[in-house]
């Protein structure tokens, strides 16, 4: 039972990332009808926002040490962080430790701006083009973005630490009555799951309970009729593209301590996320979230040694096998809408 619960936690952790990225993909497809293969790159850029802020916080200058001179009689210098100069020793140390959560404030305006520029500068020219054209141009954009990241940050993963308070592990089993150390799980992975739940809930609440969201949902169902009512639906859809980019970026920011950011991490998640979107149903936001967690849990259980001893390599293909089975029985996915990508 403890092994099952541990794999369930692992599955929820993986599913959180899949669901967040798939949610952004579905927002873009559901509103604009665009298949955005650059969405994984937005996830990667979010992770590198955390890296960038961490590097900014470690910028320093040299100052002479009060102790005087070294054994050669030369003045001794030490590196002083600018943030400690500006905000004081205590506040500066706190900001450095909490650089990843603070990166959320740093990443949101950057991701919104990138989303607006992408939509206005490139994506809008492909609204009425075939989906194959959209895939080619956005996939090319993803390659360009990852090469830009590679040029500025290098090809090697960059370790990014969670706040010290969340670097340990939580004895989850004791809460459930198991023996101590039966189910040990990293704090930050639990934080990531909770963060994902908040973001997903926030997006659904925004679409469900705000006037802006209601208009967007109406536009997703019948864009022409909403336009005839005198509403600038294109402007609202551009904002939704920015929000989708921000969701992907936030997923990347908080994932940075779990998987050290590297220039190809966007591509690693992109294919899996598109599988999630298709399984959930193209254009279905609840389907994307449901499929994300479902496939994350299945992938986690398939990675157990007991399963791999019976079916070697099943952990590498389980998501695709499940996708094939679901699409054979439900061609529109779990919660797909009629007429979406069926023309």
From TrEMBL:
Family: Belongs to the binding-protein-dependent transport system permease family. LivHM subfamily.
Organism (species): Sulfitobacter pontiacus
Cellular-component GO terms for this entry: plasma membrane
Principal subcellular localisation of the protein: membrane
GO molecular function, one term: transmembrane transporter activity
Lineage: superkingdom: Bacteria
Membrane topology value: Multi-pass membrane protein
Protein name: Amino acid/amide ABC transporter membrane protein 1, HAAT family
């Amino acid at each position: 039972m403890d092994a099952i619960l541990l794999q369930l936690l692992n599955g929820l952790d993986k599913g959180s990332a899949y669901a967040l990225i798939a949610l952004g993909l579905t927002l873009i497809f559901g509103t604009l009808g665009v298949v955005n293969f650059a969405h994984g790159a937005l996830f990667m850029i979010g992770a590198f926002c955390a890296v960038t802020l961490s590097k900014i916080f470690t910028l320093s200058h040299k100052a002479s040490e009060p102790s005087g001179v070294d054994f050669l009689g030369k003045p001794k210098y030490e590196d002083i962080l600018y943030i400690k100069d500006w905000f004081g020793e205590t506040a500066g140390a706190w900001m450095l430790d909490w650089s990843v959560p603070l990166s959320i404030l740093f990443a949101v305006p950057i991701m919104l701006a990138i989303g607006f520029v992408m939509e206005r500068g490139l994506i809008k020219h492909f609204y009425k083009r075939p989906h194959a054209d959209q895939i080619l141009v956005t996939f090319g954009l993803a390659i360009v973005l990852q090469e830009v990241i590679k040029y500025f940050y290098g090809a090697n993963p960059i370790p990014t630490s969670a706040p010290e308070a969340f670097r340990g592990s939580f004895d989850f089993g004791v809460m459930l009555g198991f023996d101590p150390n039966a189910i040990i799980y990293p704090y930050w992975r639990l934080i990531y799951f909770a963060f994902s739940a908040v973001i997903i809930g926030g997006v659904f609440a925004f679409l469900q309970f705000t006037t802006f969201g209601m208009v967007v949902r109406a536009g997703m169902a019948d864009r022409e009729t909403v336009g005839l009512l005198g509403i600038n639906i294109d402007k609202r859809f551009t904002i939704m593209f920015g929000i989708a980019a921000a969701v992907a970026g936030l997923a990347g920011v908080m994932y940075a301590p779990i998987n050290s950011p590297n220039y190809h991490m966007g591509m690693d998640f992109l294919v899996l996320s598109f599988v999630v979107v298709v399984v959930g149903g193209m254009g279905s936001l609840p389907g994307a979230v449901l499929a994300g967690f479902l496939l994350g849990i299945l992938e986690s259980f398939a990675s157990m040694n007991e399963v791999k001893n019976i079916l070697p390599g099943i952990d590498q293909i389980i998501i695709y096998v499940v996708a094939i089975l679901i699409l054979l029985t439900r061609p529109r996915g779990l919660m797909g809408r009629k007429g979406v990508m069926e023309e």
